[in-house]
Design goal:
- 44% of the residues lie in helices and 16% in strands.
- The chain has a domain of 237 residues.
- It starts with a helix and ends with a helix.
- The strands form five sheets. It has a four-stranded mixed β-sheet, with no helix packed on it. Strands 2-5-14-15 form a four-stranded mixed β-sheet, with no helix packed on it. The chain has a three-stranded mixed β-sheet with strand order 10-11-12, with no helix packed on it.
- It contains six helices and 15 strands.
- The longest helix has 102 residues.
C-alpha cells in the first residue's frame, strides 16, 4: 500500500509540474552563437491579407554553417483564438548569445526589450487586442485595409522606440522582464505553428537572406503571408519566385562551371593519356627500329664473313693440290736417279759358275 501511495503521489506531482515544464521548454534557449546578430533592419509592413491574422515580426535566426539569416516578418494565423505571439529574441549571457524561441500565449511576454516595431516596441504589445472571439486591430501600429477589415481601432499612446538592438544584454537592449511579463512567462504556451516553422525553414534555404550575403539588408524583409508575396525594406514587391529564379540561375551557373571543370579535367586526362600513349608508341617504334638495325647489321656482318670465307676457301683448296702434284713430278726423277747411280751388281750366275 505504501508503494502504491508513493506512485500516486509521484504521478500527481508530475501532472502538476507538466504545464510549468511545457512553458519553460517553450521559452527556453534553443541555440547559441559566439557573435552578436546584426542590427534589426527597418522595413515597411505589408497589408494584412485576411481578418484574424496576426503579425509576427521579422528576426535574425542562426545556422551553424551559414551564420545569421533573416526570417521575414509575416502575417500568420494564430493556433487558437485569444492567443498572442511573443517574438523570439537573442540574449547575451555567459559569454555567448542565446536564442530564446517565440511562443503563443494568452499574453505577450518578455521579448528582450527589442524594438521590433509594429506594436512590439520593446515592452508590451500595442498591435491589437482580443475582444471575445474576434481580434481588434490597432491601425496606428499595423497596416490594415479598413475597407475590408472593419474590426479596428486607433491607439497612438504606445511607446515608440528608435533603437535597432538585435539582442538583450551588454552592448544591446538593457532591460529585464517586469512583473507582468514574468507572469506571462509562467503561463501555458503553445509553440510556433507548422506554417511558422516552414516559414523559417524557407528563409534558411534562401541564401539571399543570410547576413554574409545581404550585409544586414535582406532581399525579403517582410511577407504578406507564408509562401506569399515578399517585400524589400522599402515595401516594394520582391517575389520569392524571383529570388528562387536567381538562386536557380546561380545554381545552374555553378553546375555549368562544375561540368566545364570536369570536362576540362577529362580533356587534360585524355590529352595526358594520349601523349603518354604516343610517347610509348614512339619508344616502341624506336626500339623496333633499333632492333631491326641491329639485326640488319648482324646480317651484314654475317654476310661479309661468309663472303670472306668463300673467297679464302678456293686458295686453300688449290694449295694442297699443288703440294700433291709436286712430289708426283719429282718422283720419276728420284726413281730414275737411284737406278742410274746404283752400282753394278755382280752376275750371280757368272760367279757361281766360277
Amino acid at each position: 500500500m505504501k508503494n502504491i501511495s508513493k506512485i500516486i503521489v509521484f504521478i500527481c506531482a508530475m501532472a502538476f509540474a507538466l504545464p510549468h515544464t511545457f512553458a519553460q521548454v517553450s521559452i527556453g534557449v534553443g541555440i547559441s552563437a559566439n557573435i552578436a546578430p546584426p542590427e534589426l533592419p527597418v522595413y515597411e509592413q505589408p497589408e494584412c491579407p485576411s481578418d484574424g491574422y496576426l503579425w509576427q515580426p521579422g528576426y535574425w535566426a542562426y545556422d551553424p554553417d551559414g551564420g545569421y539569416y533573416w526570417v521575414p516578418g509575416v502575417w500568420v494565423a494564430p493556433p487558437t483564438r485569444g492567443y498572442l505571439w511573443t517574438p523570439p529574441y537573442w540574449g547575451f549571457e555567459g559569454g555567448a548569445y542565446g536564442f530564446h524561441i517565440g511562443y503563443w500565449g494568452p499574453h505577450v511576454g518578455f521579448y528582450g526589450g527589442l524594438n521590433y516595431g509594429f506594436g512590439y516596441g520593446g515592452e508590451g504589445f500595442y498591435g491589437g487586442r482580443w475582444q471575445g472571439n474576434r481580434f481588434m486591430y490597432n491601425t496606428a501600429a499595423w497596416h490594415i485595409n479598413r475597407t475590408v477589415i472593419h474590426n479596428t481601432y486607433i491607439n497612438n499612446t504606445y511607446v515608440r522606440n528608435t533603437n535597432r538592438y538585435s539582442f538583450n544584454g551588454p552592448g544591446g537592449a538593457n532591460r529585464r522582464p517586469n512583473a507582468g511579463e514574468e507572469a506571462a512567462m509562467r503561463e501555458r504556451h503553445i509553440q510556433a505553428t507548422s506554417r511558422q516553422m516552414a516559414h523559417q525553414q524557407a528563409a534558411r534555404q534562401n541564401k539571399a537572406q543570410f547576413a554574409n550575403v545581404n550585409h544586414g539588408h535582406p532581399a525579403a524583409a517582410a511577407m504578406n503571408r507564408v509562401n506569399g508575396r515578399a517585400f524589400n525594406e522599402s515595401g516594394h514587391v520582391a517575389t520569392m519566385q524571383r529570388q528562387r529564379a536567381t538562386q536557380q540561375h546561380q545554381a545552374t551557373q555553378q553546375r555549368q562551371q562544375a561540368t566545364q571543370q570536369r570536362q576540362h579535367a577529362t580533356q587534360q586526362r585524355q590529352a595526358t593519356q594520349q601523349h603518354q600513349a604516343t610517347q610509348q608508341r614512339q619508344q616502341a617504334t624506336q626500339q623496333r627500329q633499333h632492333a631491326t638495325q641491329q639485326r640488319q647489321a648482324t646480317q651484314q656482318r654475317q654476310a661479309t664473313q661468309q663472303r670472306q670465307t668463300q673467297q679464302q676457301r678456293p686458295a686453300q683448296q688449290q694449295r694442297p693440290a699443288q703440294q700433291q702434284q709436286r712430289p708426283a713430278q719429282q718422283r720419276p726423277a728420284q726413281q730414275q736417279r737411284p737406278a742410274q747411280q746404283r752400282p753394278a751388281q755382280p752376275n750371280k750366275q757368272h760367279n757361281g759358275g766360277r
